[in-house]
Amino acid sequence: MINNYDDILQWVEENDIMILDRGFRDSLGVLKSLCIDVAMPSFFGPKQNQSDVQDANNSRFVTILRWVVESVNARIKRFKWFNQVIPNSSLPSVQDFICIVAALPNCFHVSMVTPSPNDDETIRRMNSLRTQNNTLQISLTDYNLTRNSICNVIDVHNLVQRFPELLMVDLRMITLGVYQLKKARSYAEEHADSIDLTDPNLEFPIRSCTDTNAHDIIRIRFQSAHKKSSQYYTYIQFDPKQILAWYCTCRSGPRVVGCCSHVAAGIWFLGFERHQLETNQQPSSINFANLHYCDSISDYEDSSDEDNDARYSSTS
């Protein structure tokens, strides 16, 4: 871009924003020197273990917009030859191979994105939430509600107020995408130590806040999917009709534009799955694999909320 090969800078117009992943972090200086605005997921600062709510919200917008790029890459890599390191001797033929690989799905595969009647409502909801703070996180901090001494183990049937029963469309309006719902089953099964999530005798450990002004808050401790020594506390605030707020101690847990996979798992099980007559008892890995490549489902995110415990920091 610095040398303007093939007049590449003519592709960029005033007020354009380049939406990039963190792999371009070392190029930020170059792009800014060319007066190009850039949007990419936020970086962690020194000793920072969690994004603040605004960074988490903005990062969610970036991953949503970048999903179509990642989805195309995933579809191409389903061809074995492209899912490996390509030898230099094959580079002259890569363009021809890409044309062939791209033509096959375009001709014979389902559309990558299927419009949904709820898409406009999803966009409206995301825009309305983008600048909002996490009210539950603020309450937990201001009133010191994270103390173990005020969180007692309780059976879900004995909550002070009933957990709301939700429809799948309600869940989608909370998660604002399907990635977290794909992960929900595996987190719930691990937490309950069972694959039969509709068993009436199933134990799904939760804690209820005993503080006078916080009976509508529960806490669930989820094991990290990537690191055995890490656990995350998920807090959910609700009334009998709806989910009011959520917060998790994982890296993207404060965001209110959608939610992390841990929050989704808790809400999905308590508000939806345990009310179903039968459950899908195939292994979680198979269940996730079947959903992971459902290109016809409009998805928005491609990476884990925990980012595989990788740390990202800016070099600029």
The number of helical segments is: 9
DSSP strand count: 7
Question: Major sheet, described briefly?
Answer: 5 strands, antiparallel
Whole-Å distance between the termini?
Answer: 18 Å
Question: Which regions contain 5 or more consecutive residues with pLDDT less than 50?
Answer: 284-304, 308-316
| H/E element sequence | EHEHHHHEHHEEEEHH
Average the pLDDT over all residues and give the rounded result.
85
How many domains? The number is 2
Rough outline: globular
Class of secondary structure makeup: alpha+beta
With strands numbered from the N-terminus, the spatial order across the biggest sheet is 3-4-5-6-7
How would you sum up this structure, described in words?
It is a single chain. This protein is of the alpha+beta class and 316 residues long. The protein has two domains: 1-40, no CATH class; 119-305, no CATH class. Helices cover 34% and strands 11% of the residues. It has nine helices and seven strands, in the order E-H-E-H-H-H-H-E-H-H-E-E-E-E-H-H. The chain has helices at residues 28-33, 53-76, 91-108, 119-129, 135-142, 168-175, 179-192, 261-271, 284-292, and strands at residues 17-19, 37-39, 151-154, 206-209, 217-223, 231-238, 243-248. It has a five-stranded antiparallel beta sheet, sandwiched between helices. A two-stranded parallel sheet has the order 1-2. Strand 6 (231-238) and strand 7 (243-248) form a beta hairpin. The longest helix has 24 residues, at 53-76. It is globular, with a radius of gyration of 22 Å. The two termini are 18 Å apart. Residues 284-304 and 308-316 have low confidence and may be disordered.
